[in-house]
Amino acid sequence: MASEFEQAPAVLRRLPSRLLAQAAGHAERLVSDRLAEIDAHKWHFAVLAALAEHGPGSQSTLSRRTGIYRSDMVAVLNVLAERGFVERTPDSDDRRRNIVTVTEPGLRRLARLGEVLAESQDELLTPLTTADRTHLVQLLTRIVEHHNAARPWS
Amino acid sequence: MASEFEQAPAVLRRLPSRLLAQAAGHAERLVSDRLAEIDAHKWHFAVLAALAEHGPGSQSTLSRRTGIYRSDMVAVLNVLAERGFVERTPDSDDRRRNIVTVTEPGLRRLARLGEVLAESQDELLTPLTTADRTHLVQLLTRIVEHHNAARPWS
DNA sequence: CCAATCTCAGAAGTACTGAAATGG
DNA sequence: CCCATTTCAGTATTTCTGAGATTG
Question: What is the share, in percent, of chain B residues with pLDDT greater than 70?
Fold first, then answer.
């Protein structure tokens, strides 16, 4: 009974919003499980990548760049700072701000997280050819950018 | 400042798992908002569609067909039964089970929910051509079915 | 005695709100 | 006095766990 398959209704199986939710759920599970094995979280990758690509920034800038809420950013940075992957130093020009900087160990950590992430993307997209994967990314990008533009950072 | 755009790192913007999460998020918001306007929930559609397509069934069968947890199915059916869209009657062959049946008003409700859902899928997929939409559904289906098969109903 | 079903109470993760504290 | 930033406390939603009660 546990291995017996129940088919979902056809109208449900073909619903784009439901397919997106299911695919996103599988992606989330694959990525989170792999990252958890090395004591990491996808938010860590987002923050480290933002710092590596755009350079140091305040916490609110990081929030806008990563999509992580300012409230939650605090906890993420606490962990990363505790482990020496980032440094939080007060901004001398505007002392409300913290300037967050990535450290050398932080860059090595970023590289490691990137490897694990690449492996899990590969696992996620196993059933697709390289051309398929490119096309999927393009289609999703069109959807996401359209709706992001419609509600600019809400 | 509110309308000022911050670009996410390129490595993040192109990450399939992140694109899926973002697209799924937009889809969820569009669908939920539209359904909320008529006092409905996507789970209502899933249950009514499963009943219409596969006929009456027990709550655990419905759970497997819709992906809604057995625990949560209780609350969903409470609402649908309260409004007269389904009927819950004890199974005389196995009195642990409830047999859930869709009513005539339930079928009309399903049709209405289907309309609203079709409109929101259309809004979601606005930036895609018809051919693109078909292709997207195919790609997502391949991913979802591959990973569903890998962990049969968990 | 064990298994399945329905139900409830609640945990865990994520997204988000509101407000206090500090400073511009 | 108002606005911005960091931080904390807490809400809301969804997914999922565990256990009790009933029945097979």
Answer: 94
pLDDT for the residue B150? 82
Burial class (CB in 10 A: 0-12, 13-18, 19+), B110: buried
**B3 pLDDT above the threshold of 50:** no
Measuring from the CA of residue A41 to each C1' atom, give the nucleotide at the shortest distance: C13
The pLDDT of B80-101, averaged and rounded, is 96
pLDDT reported for residue A2: 30
Query: pLDDT means per 10 residues in chain A (154 residues)?
Result: 62 96 96 94 96 96 95 96 96 95 98 97 97 98 93 63
CA dist., res. A30 & res. A117, Å (int): 9
Place of tokens 């997280």: A113
Averaged pLDDT, B125-142: 97
CB A11 within 8 A of CB B132: no
Report which secondary-structure segment, H or E, holds A26: helix A16-37
Give the torsion through C-alpha atoms of A64, A66, A67, A69, to 10 deg: -80
The percent helix, strand, coil of chain A (3-state, each to 5) is 65, 10, 25
Gyration radius from chain B CA atoms? 19
The phi and psi torsions of A90 (rounded to 5 degrees) equal -60, 140
CA distance between the termini of chain B:
45
Determine contact: A136 vs chain B, CB below 8 A.
Answer: yes
Q: Which of A9, A128, A144 sits opposite B49 (nearest CB)?
A: A9
Give the B window 106-125 contacts with A, CB below 8 Å: 114, 117, 120-121, 124-125
Estimate in Å the CA A4 to C1' C1 gap, whole number.
26
Task: Give the residue carrying structure tokens 């997106």.
Answer: A20
Give the per-residue pLDDT at B152.
Answer: 67
Measured CA B14 to C1' D5 distance, in angstroms: 30
